[in-house]
Structure formats: C-alpha cells, structure tokens
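REVIEWER CHECKLIST
Item 1: Sequence provided? yes
Item 2: Single chain? yes
Item 3: Sequence as submitted:
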Amino acid sequence: MIMINKNYDYQQTKFITSVFDIKNLPKDDGIEIAFTGYSNSGKSSALNAITKQKNLAHISKTPGKTKLINLFEIEYGNKLVDLPGYGYAKVSKSIQRKLQQILNEYLQKRKCLKGLVILMDIRYPLKDIDIKIIKYSISVNISIFILLTKSDKIIYNKQKSQILLVRKKLKSISNNIQVENFSSFKKIGIDKLQIKLNEWFNKYNSKYIKLYNK
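Item 4: Structure as written out by the authors:
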C-alpha cells in the first residue's frame, strides 16, 4: 500500500451545496468527514475555526437553525459535512422528525462517510442521543473523534476532570475513541482536530490508491 502523509490546506475549503434530502447529495464517492452534535454544540464554529474562515459555515444565535446537510470541499474528493443539529431545535415536531430522519439516513446510507466528529458542550456531555450515535457508528466502522466544546466556559481544572470523566465512561463502549477539549473562541484543540482530519484523509486516500492499483 502507498501510504499518504499529507497536511491538508483547510483554508482552501469551499462550499459545495446544501440539501434537505440525501437523495440530492452529490455522487457517493471520495471521502466525507461529518460534524454532528446538539444544535448548540458549536459545529459551525468548529468548521469555521479549522478552515480559518469566519463565514464558511453559518452561525446562528438561535440553536436549531441548521436544517440542511451542508457540504464543503477541501480539495477534489475530500469533503467536510455539517449535519443538522439534534436535540434542541426550536422548530415544529414535524421538522424535528424530518431532521432526525435526515441524520439517520445519512449515517446509514452514505458510503463515503469515513469519519464522524461528534461535538458536545463540555458542561453537558454524553447525552443519550450522543451515545446512540457513537454505538451505531462503531457498529458500521465509522471512525469517531469527540470534541468537548466551549471549554473556555469552565476553569482549567474542571476541563481536565470533564475530559477524564468522558474518557472513562466511553471505555465501556470502546477503547479507541479520542476525546479532546475544544474552544473556537480560545483556539483550544484546533491543532488536534486538524491532526485527526489529516490522519483520516490520509488513511482512506491510501486505501483508495491500493484498490485502484490492484
């Protein structure tokens, strides 16, 4: 296998499209790394921080405004995906059900989805739906990276205790889930997120090269 060891230029990331139904997504190929979490977990802020673009992903003052699957391309074939938030959308019950359906179908049917960045407010981590998504992703071999966001909201010692608590609880599910503190405001954890994204893109691009050269 030809191993790729590349640092991707996330500042070159461009918006591709937004869809309300997975049937309207682009062709199911290449590599997609998706960001998911509660509606107020800071998904858009994390995407803007990693790409160093203030307005790439729209940030709303009202949690639950992301109702579409938003796709961004770093370079040809390598994409980041902003999924609709869950759990706190201030919308009708019918829209909430539709958003949950979109998320479920994307996770279950999108073959080019290789990694999932799950964002959780560091003050309220590992809610029931977070755990369900983690367990499902593990069952279908989707790699997981957890960011405990809004770390700047609590003191340093509390940050340390929270990350240790989450890591301990996750051991009953898997020993192979990396958990890191994150704050887009204080620039905490951006380097670790970039390292993880590079690791995933290199890993799966290497696999595609192996298959192509067979």
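Item 5: Key structural point noted by reviewer: Helices lie at 43-51, 93-109, 128-139, 156-170, 190-213.
Item 6: Recommendation: ____
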